């Protein structure tokens, strides 16, 4: 293949966005759980929700940006 397909670029964008979003969400979720003194095992649930939510949003936006950028040729 001479050029990457659009699907491969969008998939890579979603994967990178999910990884970055997950890392940021884990750090932010841990900070918020400690800051607001979330009790016991609810901390793990809170951190997990923040991590997955952040990963989904970052992945969505980076994938959409890759899709928009995919149509342009430089």
UniProtKB/TrEMBL annotation:
What does the sequence similarity comment in the record state about its family?
Belongs to the MGR2 family.
Identify the domain of life: Eukaryota
Q: What is this protein called?
A: Reactive oxygen species modulator 1
Query: Record's Pfam families?
Result: Romo1 (PF10247)
**GO CC, alphabetical:** TIM23 mitochondrial import inner membrane translocase complex
Q: Which SMART domains match?
A: Romo1 (SM01378)
Report the record's Gene Ontology biological process terms: protein import into mitochondrial matrix; protein insertion into mitochondrial inner membrane
Where does it localize? Answer: Membrane
Which key words tag this protein in UniProt?
Membrane, Transmembrane, Transmembrane helix
Transmembrane region(s): 12-31, 51-70
Which interval of the chain is the signal sequence?
A: none
Output the InterPro entries linked to this UniProt entry. Answer: Romo1/Mgr2
């Amino acid at each position: 293949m001479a050029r990457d397909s659009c699907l491969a670029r969008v998939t890579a964008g979603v994967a990178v966005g999910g990884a970055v979003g997950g890392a940021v969400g884990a750090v932010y979720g841990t900070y918020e759980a400690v800051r607001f003194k979330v009790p016991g095992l609810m901390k793990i649930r809170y951190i997990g929700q923040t991590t997955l939510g952040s990963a989904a949003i970052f992945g969505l936006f980076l994938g959409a940006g890759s899709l928009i950028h995919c149509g342009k040729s430089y």
